[in-house]
């Protein structure tokens, strides 16, 4: 019965998405909803995109193992990313009237940097989308009592998302996100109240969390712990900023005001509401202590689904899986669309010049289909990897490769193409070198990468100017003065 209701829900979201797809006539409609979304929809689509499988299953698992200190990357880093986007980036980018974030790199630095950063951004989506696909596979496997394998569940999930994303693009994603956020928030809120009552009251759950030191946030006052804490915090906080899905939500707004306020409100709500799944898992420590301890040793991601399936009535099961599927589908649809639009607009066009808008729209849809197939294959190959690790690992690539050129390009007038190229090469190269060296246990690879990227930008931008001034017989400081 529960599995049947889930399939009915999937069909209903497909119907809503296809209804919204009727508004798609151009590539701008497909990529950024024709820049027509009001503030409320920017908030809901931002929140729903961020609130994915890792928030419902990955974050609670990390929280119950290591407390708030273990989830600094997400939800805290992830939520503050959206706030930073709204405060420092949204208005500047919105006024440039671009279709993709990679268009900015082309306008500021040229084609080479555009292609390089596009590849970096696209690569980063593999881990994030795979986390959602993996979660869909687990859901169908659990609901069918093992009759549907995890791999087959992944296939079913991807097809259900493709059914509307392929035709409606950002319009379908935004409208379905609006519906799914309502289901998500209502479902998890009701579950939290019910779980609190089962545990003997919310105060009992909070007291248990305090006794286990789960609310400890700051690291130990040692250089090693502080470095790795800081590196974890900036991975999603800064690494998510140069991402097409965030940019799409900014550019889809109908005004600068909506573009700036939407991410700030969405990010704040995300941080606050991410505590609900954490509360649910903490309540499981009281409701089913022995099973929870066993699952902590086996797979902590299964604690919350097990609590719902074995200890809660049918109505609560419906609410939970409705909320979970809403979280997964809203994130997966956005993360399938974003890299596909980037590829068509910033990679494919290097080889095939723009023809008609209709042809461009068809190319975007074909790319969504191909990327979905690639993600599905990658997800099946990575089966068994932690959902939280899939997501967090994905953001190190844009952090070390694309973040510095974006920030310096917007806020430093002397940033140059040579500096951007040096930043990308130094950032990616250093990150890879440190990650596969024994140093990675002493100094975080992503922090080394972003520092090298900043150095590359400064040296690469100033060195040619300094050399030119030397040849001209002028001291660079005199000239700049």
From TrEMBL:
Source organism per UniProt: Pseudorhodoferax soli
GO molecular function: symporter activity
Membrane spanning stretches: 6-24, 36-53, 76-94, 115-140, 146-167, 179-202, 222-241, 262-288, 314-341, 362-381, 393-412, 419-439, 445-463
Alphabetically ordered keywords of this record: Cell membrane, Ion transport, Membrane, Sodium, Sodium transport, Symport, Transmembrane, Transmembrane helix, Transport
Pfam families recorded: SSF
Protein name per its UniProtKB record: SSS family transporter
Source taxonomy: Bacteria, Pseudomonadati, Pseudomonadota, Betaproteobacteria, Burkholderiales
Principal cellular location given in the protein's record: membrane
Localization of this protein: Membrane
Family statement: Belongs to the sodium:solute symporter (SSF) (TC 2.A.21) family.
Membrane topology according to the record: Multi-pass membrane protein
UniProt GO BP: carboxylic acid transport; sodium ion transport
GO cellular component: plasma membrane
């Amino acid at each position: 019965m529960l599995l049947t209701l889930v399939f009915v829900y999937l069909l209903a979201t497909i119907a809503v998405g296809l209804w919204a797809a009727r508004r798609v006539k151009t590539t701008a409609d497909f990529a950024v909803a024709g820049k027509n979304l009001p503030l409320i929809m920017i908030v809901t689509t931002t929140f729903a995109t961020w609130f994915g499988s890792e928030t419902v299953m990955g974050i609670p698992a990390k929280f119950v193992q290591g407390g708030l200190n273990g989830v600094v990357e997400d939800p805290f880093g992830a939520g503050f990313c959206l706030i930073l986007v709204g405060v420092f980036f949204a208005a500047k980018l919105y006024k440039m009237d671009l279709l993709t974030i990679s268009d900015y790199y082309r306008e500021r630095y040229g084609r080479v940097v555009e292609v390089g950063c596009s590849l970096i951004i696209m690569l980063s989506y593999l881990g994030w989308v795979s986390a959602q696909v993996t979660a869909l596979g687990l859901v169908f496997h659990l609901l069918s009592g093992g009759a549907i394998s995890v791999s087959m569940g992944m296939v079913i999930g991807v097809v259900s998302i493709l059914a509307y994303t392929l035709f409606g693009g950002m319009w379908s994603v935004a409208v379905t996100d609006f519906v799914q956020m309502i289901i998500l928030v209502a479902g998890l809120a009701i579950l939290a109240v019910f779980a609190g009552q089962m545990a003997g009251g919310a105060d009992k759950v909070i007291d248990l969390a305090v006794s286990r030191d789960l609310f400890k946030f700051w690291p130990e006052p040692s250089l090693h712990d502080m470095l790795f804490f800081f590196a974890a915090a900036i991975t999603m906080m800064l690494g998510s900023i140069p991402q097409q899905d965030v940019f799409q939500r900014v550019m889809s707004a109908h005004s600068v005001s909506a573009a700036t306020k939407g991410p700030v409100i969405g990010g704040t709500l995300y941080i606050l509401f991410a505590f609900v799944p954490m509360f649910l898992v903490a309540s499981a420590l009281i409701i089913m202590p022995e099973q929870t301890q066993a699952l902590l040793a086996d797979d902590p991601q299964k604690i919350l689904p097990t609590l719902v399936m074995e200890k809660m009535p049918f109505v609560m099961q419906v609410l939970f899986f409705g909320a979970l599927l809403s979280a997964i589908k809203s994130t997966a649809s956005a993360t399938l669309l974003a890299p596909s639009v980037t590829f068509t607009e910033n990679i494919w066009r290097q080889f095939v010049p723009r023809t008609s808008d209709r042809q461009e729209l068809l190319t975007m849809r074909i790319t969504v289909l191909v990327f979905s197939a690639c993600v599905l294959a990658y997800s099946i190959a990575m089966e068994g990897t932690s959902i939280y690790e899939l997501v967090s690992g994905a953001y190190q690539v844009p952090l070390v490769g694309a973040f510095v050129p974006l920030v310096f390009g917007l806020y430093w007038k002397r940033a140059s193409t040579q500096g951007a190229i040096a930043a990308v090469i130094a950032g990616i190269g250093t990150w890879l070198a440190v990650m596969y060296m024994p140093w990675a246990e002493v100094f975080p690879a992503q922090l080394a990468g972003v520092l090298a990227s900043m150095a590359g930008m400064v040296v690469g931008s100033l060195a040619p100017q300094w050399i030119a001034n030397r040849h001209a017989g002028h001291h660079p400081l005199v000239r700049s003065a």
